[in-house]
Amino acid sequence: WGFLLLVAALALGGKAVARCPTPCVCDNLRAHVLCLNGNLTAIPGAIPELTKKLDLQGNSFTVIPVGAFLATPYLKHLDLQHCKVERLEEGAFRGLGRLLYLNLASNGIALLFQESLDGLSALQQLILKGNRIEEIQSGAFGHLGSLTVLDLRANALVYLPDMVFQGLQALRWLRLSHNALHVLSSEAFAALPTLRRLSLDHNELQALPGEALARLDGATWLDLGHNPITYVAEEALAMASLKHLFLDHAALQDVAPNAFTHSPQLRTLDLRENQLQGLPPLAGVRGRVRVSLAGNPLLCSCLLRPFHDWLVRARVQAEGSCATPPALHGRPLDSLRPPELRCSHPQPRPSPATPSERPRAASSRQCPQECTCSPDFRHGSCENRDLWDIPQGFPGDTRLLDLRRNTFRMVLPGAFLGLKELVSLHLQSCSIRALRPGALRGLESLVYLYLADNCLSTLAAAAFEGAPRLAYLDLDRNTFTHLPAGAFQLLPNLISLHLQHNAIGELVEGDLAGAGGLRWLYLAGNAIRRIAPAALAPAKMLEKLHLEGNHLVEVPTAALRGLPSLSELKLSGNPIKRMGDGAFLPLTSSLQHLYLDNMGLEEISPGAFAGLGPKIRSLYLESNKMSNIPDMSNFTGLEILNLRDVPFHCDCQLLPLHRWTDKLNLHVGATCGSPAEAQGLKVKLSTTFQTCPGWGRGEAGGASPDKAKAASKLNKKKRSGKSPARGFKTSRA
After folding, report:
1. Which of 615, 662, 666, 696 could make an S-S bridge to 700, C-beta 3.0–4.6 Å?
2. Which CATH code is given to the segment(s) 19-195?
3. What is the pLDDT of residues 391-410, one digit of tens each?
4. In this structure, what are the phi and psi dihedrals at residue 308, rounded to the nearest 5 degrees?
């Protein structure tokens, strides 16, 4: 499609791309502008005012500034996937009152502010999948009254505060899969009157969040699979309209008999792949219901007889088969007869105790004089008040406390006593030099701790005493010269650790002791020269490792062993000149996203990518110095391949790359750096390969004469500087 659009643009003599900013392609008939996989670092100017669809995938914007799209008020579709966006300024999308679809997937957004999405009153679909969103401020979605689908999959959410989705009056599907949620406030889903489908699968919920779910009167579909839920308690789920409930691949050991009494419309109950030996008769569940128990270790003894009798009596259809006793192994439940369910020594099966609910702290409405407190959102703020001491006297039910931009210098023991419900604590830019032992004592609910932009150079483990649920620790832009070894021993739930832009010189064995649950480690912008082979060993669950902008001169292959879940590795901007064989062999079963751009890389050995293949989704190699790359024909799952600004030598040795990129349904940006007659030409369309032996064999689609002629014509125009349609790509669906 990309080639055809280029030829069409040439055939029209440039009419289809009038008033089109370089390096974009404009289809004025459909009011569609594409500026794909380019070098853009700012939203291009001169986009036609009447544009309705703007596709900016694969650029490098970092920040979307205020009013970035004021010149295109008629936009209905905006795609900003894979644009390395880290921040949305408040008011970034103002003026887009007609926009229906906004895709911000696969960027680096970490925080949604209250006004980040202001101005999108007509928006119907918002895709934020695959970012680094750790926290959503209440009110962030308050201007999205028309939104029907909100996709927040694959982010870094641990906690949902009260009223976090307030304003989403038309929302029908909320997608929160593949986060790390383990705390949901009781009012997290309040004010969602039209929600029909909620996806909470692949999170860290240890109990069914019944109180929060009870607010969803109209929801018919609930997915809670792949959570470590061990028990469904009595009357745990009160959702009057619920029809389909998925609790598969959890850790269920028992379900209370009346767990679903208040969900009378239930039609599908998926309990596959749990640890259930049986079930009691389920009160309130009857007729036309399908219960799936496949993959459970069902004990088909007399203990199962009440459940079996109930299946027949209530006309419930059950799927599953016996695991024991041996005589009944493999027998489907619906084939059993009551006399077969017998016990030699019948004993009642014990039910686990229902998890006790933490008593709610009594709240009072006091607030320190220098601060403001919001009882509706349970927020307290003393931001930028020129304070030298941490204020006391906040309401006991405060969930978020913002103390940024003050001058505390140190945090003393017991500084936050009485705030047992505090979840998020902001202490950025407070000139803090020391976090004393016991400073966080009493913060038993704390999940997020932000200490960026301070003067910390060391931390003792005792500093985190009393905050066992801490999951996100932000220490960016401090003065650490090494990881604070031992500091994580009291943080068993730590998931995300930010130590970017410090002065860390190396990682040594023991640095991450105690961080067994760590999933995301951000170390960009330090001075790391060496990573000891065992330095990362304690973090066996690590999924993301960001090492860009350090001083590594080789891939730390030995240190990557023992990380079976690592799916994203960033080495961009390290002075790695040569990449040897087997550089990524320890990650062959898990790696999906690999960043090797802007390194000055001069040579990649033929076996450097050995073991990698179909699992790789994105590979960034732009802005390097090699003239060839190894065979990557088995990288069949690629969605992004960036080869811009690499001086390829377009001789017959590069013919395999030409053939491969010609078959890819991707724009890779590869251009010839030499020989002189090919310099600046796209590798994919260059005619310099037509003199190579075997040129006529195996060309993509048989390289028709018309296509060769069109490519030759296009190359001549490129050499004369007359190409009007640079930068177009077609992407995978």
Report:
1. 662
2. 3.80.10.10
3. 999 999 898 899 999 999 99
4. -65, -45
